[in-house]
Specification:
The complex is a heterodimer of chains A (about 400) and B (about 100). By secondary structure, chain A is of the alpha/beta class. Chain A is about 30% helix and about 25% strand. Chain A folds into two domains: about 180 residues, 3-Layer(bba) Sandwich (FAD/NAD(P)-binding domain), CATH 3.50.50.60; about 160 residues, D-Amino Acid Oxidase, Chain A, domain 2 (2-Layer Sandwich). Chain A is built from ten helices and 20 strands. Chain A has an eight-stranded mixed beta sheet, sandwiched between helices. A six-stranded mixed beta sheet of chain A has the order 9-3-2-13-20-19, sandwiched between helices. Chain A is globular and about 65 Å long. Chain B is mainly alpha-helical. Helices cover about 45% and strands about 5% of the residues of chain B. In chain B, strand 1 and strand 2 form a beta hairpin. The radius of gyration of chain B is 15 Å and the shape is globular. Chain B starts with a helix and ends with a helix. The chains are: A alpha/beta (about 400), B mainly alpha (about 100).
């Protein structure tokens, strides 16, 4: 069913309302439906029209911070293998392995330490030589002096994933309303009572899950829950179809430095710093190569810029000189929902009983979609998550 | 299109770049897609080298026929650069 306009919806009653139909909201709806919960999902726009449809599909384990974030990613990727069999759509998940490319000695020092802390946490990751990296990916530039490699990283098709979760949820009984947004969430004595849509339909429910991505802050405001999410724009280029060229997703050490070691950024030019430029590259199953990316603070602007496209092209060609002859057929951008501490926001809120948040995944939404939906579903069904996610609690920004 | 349909049925290719058939487009619409962008994400129609220049009108027509939408109610895909396929090398030189 598409729109409320065509179907009279009155006096609706459901167990849970999920707000947002991206990978996080659809995963939540799927996991809840699978657990026998009656779900109504409200999606303001349509199928994969925001961040979930404007990103790459790389799923990195080795880039996660040791501790809860790493555990979350490990569990999520394990779940992917099951989901590939379980969902009605093939999601094209592959455990390809992944590399982070190193181009100078400063980066080597940083990356050696980076890899060491991850090894101590039991992650299968190692520094390999430039020669070894070129054996894995022969089109890498000669001046790549090394890489960190992990067989645990993978990639998935974000469109198939989003559709798979939506279709999976629907087949298990979830009701999905496209083109409907939430206008009001009514609270009585600290508990969720009902949701009113922008079309005036009242949906009685005890549970609301805010999976509104970059719009989660506005939804939180409706119930007085602070959700500090800032959109960061990421631009990407799409090439024409190529024969197998990029066997696994790759990042460069700069991409990691942008997040974890800002001192390494001094080696970068002003433009790269301003754009938050870091390499991310993967080849899709169709043969196109996706190359990015930027992290820009430009509000909700989803445009692409000449400056951004050229900076990505130059960075990509530096690492992959042989790609220079191939054509870019499209540039696009998506907004990454970032949080002040770089962790997602996941779990119940102390302030409003029945109000849950699953948002703020920044660039990890695809990698963490399976586990995020499962965690929220466990909180709702069992009252607690099967492993600790306290560090991601929405209450860390909103002490009662 | 109606005439071709009698020859090829729903197996008629609508998007040549990505080899998407009429039946696949119709199936995406049955699943709730109501814009060119959504049909593209579900089927890949319009994602290829011509970026929908060939299939956009056909997809719009199928959408109108199945949903009763008018032509100006059909959201088209976001126009994005480059206007024509452009080599990475050219993009490295141009700034």
């Amino acid at each position: 069913m598409r729109s409320e306009k065509r179907t009279k919806l009155e006096n609706l009653r459901t167990d849970a309302v999920v707000i947002g139909g991206g990978v996080i909201g659809s995963s939540t709806a799927y996991h809840l439906s699978k657990a026998g919960i009656k779900v109504l999902l409200l999606e303001k726009k349509g199928i994969s029209l925001e961040s979930s449809g404007a990103c790459d599909g790389s799923c990195f384990i080795q880039s996660k911070k040791p501790g809860a974030a790493l555990e979350l990613a490990l569990k999520s990727l394990d779940q992917y293998e099951a989901l590939e069999k379980e969902l009605p759509e093939t999601i094209e998940f592959k455990r390809t392995g992944g590399m982070i490319l190193i181009e100078n000695e400063n980066q080597t020092k940083f990356m050696e330490q980076y890899v060491e802390t991850r090894k101590q946490h039991g992650v299968d990751v190692r520094i390999i030589s430039g020669e070894k990296a070129r054996e894995i990916c022969p089109c890498l530039a000669d001046d790549v002096i090394g890489a960190s490699y992990s067989p645990l990283d993978g990639q998935v098709d974000p469109f198939r994933l989003n559709l798979g979760f939506l279709e999976g949820a629907r087949r298990k009984g979830a009701r999905i309303l496209f083109g409907s947004s939430v206008a009001k969430i009514a609270i009585d004595e600290g508990s969720v009572k009902y949701v009113m849509t922008d079309k005036g339909t009242k949906i009685r429910t005890d549970i609301v899950v805010n999976a509104g991505g970059v719009h989660s802050g506005e939804i939180g405001e409706m119930v007085g829950v602070k959700i500090p999410i800032t959109p960061k724009r990421g631009q990407l280029l799409v090439t024409e179809k190529l024969p197998p060229t990029v066997p696994m997703p790759m990042l460069d050490a700069k991409y990691i430095a942008v997040k974890l070691a800002p001192y390494l950024l001094d080696e970068m030019g002003e433009e790269a710093k301003r754009l938050g430029l870091g390499l991310v590259i993967e080849q899709t199953r169709s043969g196109t190569v996706l190359a990015g990316s930027t992290r820009e603070l430009v509000g909700y602007d989803t445009g692409v810029t000449f400056e951004g496209m050229c900076a990505i092209a130059r960075n990509t060609v530096r690492y992959f000189p042989r790609l220079s002859q191939f054509a870019v057929i499209r540039a696009f951008s998506g907004l990454r929902p970032s949080t002040p501490d770089g962790y997602p926001i996941l779990g119940p809120t102390a302030k409003v009983k029945g109000f849950f948040v699953a948002a703020g995944h920044e660039g990890d939404g695809i990698a963490l979609a399976p586990i995020s939906g499962r965690v929220i579903s466990e909180f709702i069904v069992q009252g607690k998550s099967s492993f600790p996610v306290g560090e991601f609690s929405p209450d860390r920004f909103d002490r009662v | 299109m109606t005439q071709s349909k009698t020859l090829a049925g729903d197996k008629l290719t609508i998007c040549r770049c990505e080899e998407v058939t009429e039946e696949e487009i119709r199936d995406a619409i049955r699943r709730g897609a109501r814009s060119i962008s959504e049909i593209k994400r579900v089927t890949r129609a319009g994602m290829g080298i011509c970026q929908g220049r060939t299939c956009r009108r056909l997809v719009t027509k199928i959408l109108m026929e199945m949903t009763g939408m008018k032509v100006d109610e059909v959201d088209q895909d976001t126009p994005r650069p480059p206007l024509r396929p452009t080599s990475l090398q050219t993009m490295c030189e141009d700034s």
